[in-house]
Amino acid sequence: MSAPLLRAEAISFSYGARHVFTMWSADVHPGLTWLRGANGSGKSTLLKLLAGALDPYTGRRVAGGIDAAADGMGYRRQVFWCGPGAPAFDHLRAPEFFAFMAALYPRFSDAALAEAVQGLQLTPFLAVRISQLSSGNQRKVWLAAALAAGTPVVLLDEPLNALDAASLAWLRGRLRQHAEAAEQAWLVASHEPPVPEGPQQCLDLPLP
């Protein structure tokens, strides 16, 4: 197996007295990894920790060879996180949001973005502020940026939610392609397989 693109070592985190992770470790390798776990097991919290949106009490996170504690900005440029709600800066229109993301991520691909905008049927909504879009179209904007970011690690939190059937089928096709790629690691938290009957690794979270 190839070397991991993301490594978590001895991660501990809690919300007050509720312990979510205690000395938790895992490696995420190139391809597609399905993050599985029951409600309350900490899937969303883990993605936030790996994205740098939360800081663990103990432990180490390394993405693309960069340690989060040693180089926080360098680490963040190795990881793109697509959360479950509206993207940040939702006062922007989608093209403005994409331009902002392109400035943050050196490997951002305009070609991949154009393909995602078409595949997710976003073209009619490009002139609308993100805050005025439906939840499904807000999710599509964030997913399009994730698909174009070109980061070594991409974290997707419930990406299949709130999508129409055509966009869902297109996204699964793209994830199926990424499952067989060697240059990126895709960690997808989902209640169902991101790629039904397709190639994907699995990472299971027990209840804390």
Describe this structure in words.
This protein is an alpha/beta fold. Helices cover 31% and strands 26% of the residues. Helix 4 runs antiparallel to helix 5.
Number of E-type strands: 9
Shape: globular
Distance between the termini: 29 Å
Query: What is the H/E string?
Result: EEEHEEHEHHHEHEE
Biggest sheet layout: 5 strands, parallel
- Give the DSSP E fraction (strand runs of 2 or more residues): 25-35%
Unreliable stretches (pLDDT < 50, length at least 5) are none
- Roughly what percent helix? 25-40%
Oligomer: single chain
Keywords, please?
single chain, 208 residues, alpha/beta, 5-stranded parallel sheet, 4-stranded antiparallel sheet, 6 helices, 9 strands, 26% strand, globular
Strands, helices and their partners?
Elements: E1 6-15, E2 18-28, E3 31-37, H1 43-51, E4 58-63, E5 66-67, H2 72-76, E6 79-82, H3 94-104, H4 110-119, H5 135-148, E7 153-157, H6 165-179, E8 185-189, E9 201-205
Helix pairs in contact: 4-5
Provide a brief overview of the structure:
The protein is of the alpha/beta class and about 210 residues long. The protein is built from 6 helices and 9 strands.
